[in-house]
Design goal:
This protein has 283 residues and is α/β, with parallel strands linked by helices. The protein contains 11 helices and 10 strands. The protein has 3 domains: 113 residues, Tetrapyrrole methylase, N-terminal domain (Cobalt-precorrin-4 Transmethylase, domain 1), CATH 3.40.1010.10; 106 residues, Methyltransferase, Cobalt-precorrin-4 Transmethylase, Domain 2, CATH 3.30.950; 43 residues. The strands form 2 sheets. A 5-stranded parallel β-sheet has the order 3-2-4-1-5, sandwiched between helices. A 5-stranded mixed β-sheet has the order 6-7-10-8-9. The structure holds S-adenosylmethionine.
Amino acid sequence: MADLAPGKLVFVTTPIGNARDITLRALDTLREADVLVAEDTRTLRKLLEIHGIPLGGRPLFAYHDHSGARDHERVIAALRGGAVVAYASEAGTPLISDPGFGLAAAARDAGASLTAAPGVSAAITALSLAGLPTDQFFFAGFLPSAKSARRKALTGLASVPGTLVFYESPNRIAKCLADMVELLGQDRQAAICRELTKKFEEIVPGTLRSLKERAETARWKGEIVVLVGEGPPKVTTAEELDSDLQAALAEMSMKDAVAAVTEATGLPRRKVYRRALELLKPQ
Ligand code: SAM
């Protein structure tokens, strides 16, 4: 039993490849919901069929990236009428590089209660398998397809302290790795995580440079997550410390300046404080 109160919107996570990667609670929810909403109604019908869940006379309608206010209203009206509404993405967790954000916001604004029947996500599955640190990670989703926007996004991600997680398509993977080599650094450890949970699941570890070279001939197909390990720690030179401190001291109190520069450089606070005192000393 999914234990669902009337008027609840449930975000249901569906498998990313292997149809058996669905939770018992997700199946209960799909069986018991009064209204089913899906990013792709054909995929949901197939999933119901695999798991022997009859649709019966229940409404099933589509909600995707191009859905607008009218589709929100349809869901809100059902929730207000006391229906339990289950929303399922085509694959994986709703809202994770998938539709659902607008629907969640509209339901919340309408005072509806929301819950989730969570499950698999390609990002988390890739992190489990890739052999890169997972204590801190940053989910960057799909990079922009336009070259200049993609390069700008990568530049902004270069110093993120943690493993970077990208979703990518096989058509763009070679270009994307070439930009990563240039903007994130060729020696960073990375991994191509392909076709997770499916028959041809494959994890290809390597430096960004070696993966870029392999991508030129490998012709990887299917669905891909790219993980990129953290870059080398930033080294702050004495000149950089002085110029950071002078800029900060010109704008804030000594205490705040020391805190800001300590945070930005990762240097020991005591070292930054001592240098700030020296800089403030009359010459
Ligand atoms: N909501 C999904 C999730 O929770 O992972 C992501 C959906 S997004 C539209 C689709 C992208 O996720 C694919 O282009 C690929 O980058 C990644 N992806 C989904 N399934 C995958 C799989 N089985 N193996 C590798 N990557 C996958």
